[in-house]
Amino acid sequence: MNIGLIGTGTIGSGVIALYQNNFDKLKSHAKKPFKLKTICDLDFSKCPYDLSAFQKTSSYKELIADPEINIIVELIGGDEPARTIIETALKAKKHVITANKLVLAKYGKELLKIADDNNVSLLYEASVGGAIPIINNLKDSLSPNNFKEIVGILNGTTNFILTKMQKEGADYSVVLKEAQKLGYAEADPSSDVEGLDSSYKLSILASIAFQTEISIDQILMEGITKISAKDINYAKNLDASIKLLAIARNTDKGLELRVHPVIISNTHPLASVNYVFNAIYVDGDATGESMFYGRGAGSIPTAGSVWADILNIINESAYGTEKKQTINILPKEEIASKYYIRLLVEDKPGVLAEISGIFAKRNISIKEAIQKGAGEDAELVVVTHTIKEGIKNSAIKEIKALSCIKDVASIIRVGI
Ligand code: HSE
Description:
The structure is a single chain. By secondary structure, the protein is of the alpha/beta class. The protein has three domains: 2-127, 3-Layer(aba) Sandwich (Rossmann fold), CATH 3.40.50.720; 134-296, Dihydrodipicolinate Reductase, domain 2 (2-Layer Sandwich), CATH 3.30.360; 333-414, Alpha-Beta Plaits, CATH 3.30.70.260. The chain has helices at residues 10-21, 23-29, 60-65, 82-91, 101-117, 135-139, 156-168, 172-181, 190-193, 196-209, 229-237, 299-314, 351-361, 389-400, and strands at 2-6, 35-40, 55-57, 71-74, 95-98, 122-123, 147-153, 220-221, 240-251, 254-265, 277-284, 288-295, 336-345, 366-372, 379-384, 387-388, 405-414. Strands 7, 8, 9, 10, 11, 12, 13, 14, 15, 16 and 17 form an eleven-stranded mixed sheet that branches. Strands 3-2-1-4-5-6 form a six-stranded parallel sheet, sandwiched between helices. The longest helix has 17 residues, at 101-117. The mean pLDDT is 96. Bound molecules: L-homoserine. The site of L-homoserine has 8 residues, from helix 7.
């Protein structure tokens, strides 16, 4: 079996490093001989390893057209030309391995069909949770389960930022700068901090676990940019942490899909997943609860998942495309949560009464209301009982219009 690698950046370099350093181990697991034959990139200078043993090309078309190559590893990331590369390779009847969450989330359905039609495999263990073997486990060891829920910390950048805020009391913008300096956050961090990266990954996991097609716009998505040190401090006083969670839950009304920050009790296993680590908590009717923990990114750790997929292809042990079913996706307005709402208010009599009135009108029960600060700094923190998204939105709209409200500073869901 001959392998062609397209992209020698962070993960691609790791694939080369493992081939060079762990070859004997890889070979011991392969039922057939294999070779990393050709590597493709427009610029090889960023790869820190010796590339002299490989054929090199700057043309992915040339690499795919090579009749000796049976496995294409696409690791350039992004939308195009990655999608075209995958499609072209599958249509040329080559197996494809990718770490590209964006392409899978957006075009996974059609690409998996092309793979099926051409009797080849499209594998993507490295696309979610980096080194964590969650995808092959969902398809294989965990497959007897009817899943109740999958809850993940799927983005290392945001988990790093929230952990630092939690442990050091620092504000979001300060920690974001530090994360950028350390190379964890990109210069434009929006895909991570707005929850898009986690949403792509959730759609991939949920589509396997619940055997259905999911489009990104069916996921309720909120990022972490509005979380302040004050919110973190409030959570700390409750012996809780704020985490950006990706949740897929099977309810009797449909599949609930959401990515947003959550105040979770420190007794929940996900609360202790810190810094750049990722974790996926799975609850199924056979296995019960289990949690997968590990590095969600990084060159060599993620390359380990790519090689696991390559070995599955070589050994013809790749799992076929699972059957899909149509299941109801719960509309976003129907998703129910408890809310923590922090309001900047005028410090005068009647403010609490006005706010309570807006909630009472909608039959929203308030669990807790605390005034903090006084005068110019007066704040009101309200924690509600469980309410639906749509009702919360209409209450917040009315609260914002009150003259005694200076700002709705944060709205964070409580508990999972
Ligand atoms: N941007 C991602 C993260 C990298 O921060 O987790 C891996 O997909």
